[in-house]
């Protein structure tokens, strides 16, 4: 770990606050901001946290859903046990993961996953988009109608296409950047609310010729 990185982290107010408050990562402030600003999580909700290690988002979600809620954290890496958080050791994309999560749907699916950084931004951007697609593929199987989907992605030329693909599955889809994201970071968050499970293409009605799609806000 380079000296410059260590010095920047020490000057980072969110890193210092996370240390002071005993949080597992500064990323906890990102979800806290999103949940508060966009009213994402409620008492009693069932939440699925993908790529959860070290568990910062899971603890924020647990505190917001309370004892009547449930938080399931998924990651192949070790996550320190915490009361109110059920850990599933698995990779997103595992075809057996949906069955392991059980039949009861989730109110929210969260993904703060990042790819292994190659140093080639176009590659890293494309990989981050693929991670969002993998997270959403699982969300389509486990998210209840009306539920919420939150995913991190690196900004780039593939994001508009990604949002176009996700938009029909939500009443509202926005992109945002929480204050806890570093100023120089390319990460943004896509937030879909009002999930609606799409019918297979063969079952969808053919839109009238010349019909324009509804306009939906795409950013905050």
Structural summary, described in words:
The protein has 220 residues and is an alpha/beta fold. The protein has a single domain (25-198), classed as Rossmann fold, CATH 3.40.50. The chain is built from seven helices and seven strands. It has a seven-stranded mixed beta sheet, with helices on both faces. β4 (106-111), α6 and β5 form a beta-alpha-beta unit. The radius of gyration is 18 Å and the shape is globular.
CATH architecture: 3-Layer(aba) Sandwich
The global form is globular
Query: Strand-and-helix sequence, N→C?
Result: HHHEHEEHEHEHEE
SS content category: alpha/beta
CATH superfamily: Vaccinia Virus protein VP39
Offer a few descriptive terms.
220 residues; alpha/beta; Rossmann fold; 7-stranded mixed beta sheet; 7 helices; 33% helix
Q: Summed up, what is this model?
A:
With 220 residues, the chain is an alpha/beta fold. It contains 7 helices and 7 strands.
Helix and strand layout, with pairings?
Layout (H helix, E strand, L loop, with lengths): L2 H9 L1 H9 L6 H11 L7 E5 L5 H10 L4 E5 L10 E4 L8 H4 L5 E6 L9 H22 E12 L4 H8 L3 E7 L10 E9 L25
Parallel strand pairs: 1-2, 1-4, 2-3, 4-5
Antiparallel strand pairs: 5-7, 6-7
Helix pairs in contact: 3-4
